[in-house]
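PROTOCOL LOG
Step 1. Enter all chains and additional molecules of the complex.
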Amino acid sequence: MNIIEASGLTKVYSPKGTAKVHALDGLDLTVPQGTVQGLLGPNGAGKTTAVKVLTTLIQPTAGNATVAGVDVVGEPKSVRRRIGVSGQYAAVDENLTGFENLEMVGRLYHLGKRESRRRATELIEMFELTAAQNRPVKGFSGGMRRRIDLAGALVTRPQVLFLDEPTTGLDPRSRLGMWDVIKNLVSDGTTVLLTTQYLEEADQLADDIAVIDGGKVIAAGTADQLKARIGGHRVEVTLTEASAADTAREVLARHGSGEPRVHDGGRTLEVPVVDGTRALQYVLADLGEAGIELHDAGIRRPTLDDVFLKLTGHMAEEEQESQESSEAEMETAQ
Amino acid sequence: MTTLIDERGTGPAAGAVGSPAAQWFSDGWIATRRNLIKIKRVPDILVFTILQPIMFVLLFSQVYAGAMAMDDYTSFLMAGIFVQTVIFGSTFSGAAMAQDLKDGIIDRFRTLPMSTSAVLVGRTNGDLMINAISMLIMMATGFLVGWRVTTGLGGFLAAVALLLLFAYAFSWVMALLGMTVRSPEVINNASFMILFPLSFISNAFVPIHTMPSVLAAIAEWNPVSALVQSARELFGNTNPTFPEPTSWTLQHPYITVLGGIALMLLIFVPLCVKKFGSVSSR
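Step 2. Run joint prediction.
Step 3. Record the structure below.
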């Protein structure tokens, strides 16, 4: 059974005096029960908009979606009873304590006073926040806030858990901690829709990944399938002199599994390879023989940029900038 | 974290307790309680609620009294200070809604199966509580510097109810503004720029007949004047030596104020609830 089904989801914002912005442009998505679905894309690709439509926060311009079999537009309140949502802003009340925040959420799910308090205590223990439970959230660290926010999404037993960029803005250590929490959570078969900008995060946490760009899904599959399409590892070299680029390019082409790419004004070259370590050895040996001096050399693992370059022909970064400006417009238009 | 999985299984299902009406009251109360806790914990609000009213009553009654060409300026003044304070107290709803929207906590509320109006009810109740506390503090301070109610308990209670009700209705206006403007800073600055002149070009602090004619005309029709006039009459603090007001609104202050309250609630409560049903951060 598919617990999330979305077809042709479209969300158009019409800011005054500017062109229409298609935050979602015909997004299709199906998530089978008990799986973790990653939505991977740069800022402004439409991830958060998709989550907002599915969690009943905004209405789509066109298309339809069901969560746990319930129509998100027709019966939003019924959907809300079935979902848990944790957003990228750690939406907790700063002036309430950790315990008070969770109790409040329980009461608003209509669990009743006793049950709400019992569950709040339980969650505080599970998320290891017992020592801080009676302090206002204002004094919490970023990681602790995220944990309280995530706990808020688990006050009931949600049929679907939406995690919108659960680690964005966290330091590496807190990010790893958050991954552990989420892994633990999903190992019992909770259905999760997780958005992220990080390929590594999707790789770590998701069963299936949908790559989205420009408001629609441009590729879908498991992390391995996606990586296979990108071509795995790359060898990257940075030359001391750009004039040696042509020779270096020939060397890279000889040992790579695809076309070498040149950037940074001709000084940096990279090529997809099959066996990273061995290819690097050959490349270095050949470059040394040709007398080409290197500033830097190494193996690169595929990144979101690589996924995007391969799938869309443009970098995620460029996309990010143009989308950020359109997001700013959307904000003023709302 | 190892217990997470087992324990999660005991997570309760949502929506178990209460009839729809009981849930509405419960939601409203939970949202109100959140704002009451905030009053207790945020020093800014406490200063505004307790210290500022004391300061205003003392400063105006002691500093201005001598310069005013009237006996017993304190009695005249108190209704004006009450009105100014409760109107400013209502602006919390605007700034707070904007802030909650910005922080994403409105998003969290909107993904819960709670009543659509509960957050707004809680927010405006919060303002009501702030204003009630301020009123108490001001009355005590006023009493110390010689303010007396000369009408009796009925008039007194009616005045307090009118002041709080007007401010409560105004909170809904501010809440809509907060959700529309979405910037707590803009809300604070704008309300200062609008409400300060509005409360000063009125009969709140000086008698209208002493103003230049253009300002006097504005003050006569200013709804703030009608509210001040109502409170002043109900407290028995009017000054019989002043000329009769010429505007319809000041001649019929109760109808004006009650009409204003009804109008604000009828227009802005539905608008607020509708707006809340579609707002989202970013």
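Step 4. Note key features.
The mean pLDDT of chain B is 90.
The first helix of chain B runs from residue 4 to 8.
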